[in-house]
# Entry
Amino acid sequence: MSDEMYGRTELEWRALEEAGWDFLISRARESRPTTDYTEMNNELATRTGQPPWNFDYTKDRAAIGELLGRLVDRSYAETKHRPGGGLMVSALVMFLGGNGVGRGFYGKAVKLNLIPSERMSEQAKDAFWIGQMNGMVKWAGTL
# Structure
């Protein structure tokens, strides 16, 4: 049995988690708090010395999804007792040149019982996402 996931060891995953957390929290404190998958990927490679993921490959897209899921678990745990419930730090990560987050964002929100279903109107999804993004910015400012 391999101790690697998506070609990275658990030690490498821990480094990615710490670098990703530091990057997203620092980004949340900036005047432009959002980032995109490409910028985050490049930042992770720079901060950890690990090779960047190649988003042409399904497994590499899944790997960054795994990382964002881990980061959301942390942000949710650290904020779940605040008024309004837990926050998803991945609300800050959008598609390159896009205006929205990936489908995994809403799936994770369902798992955390933050929304009842992924089958919401686009308007309801956007309102939830923007609320999460604004909540992260406000919370990060208190750290």
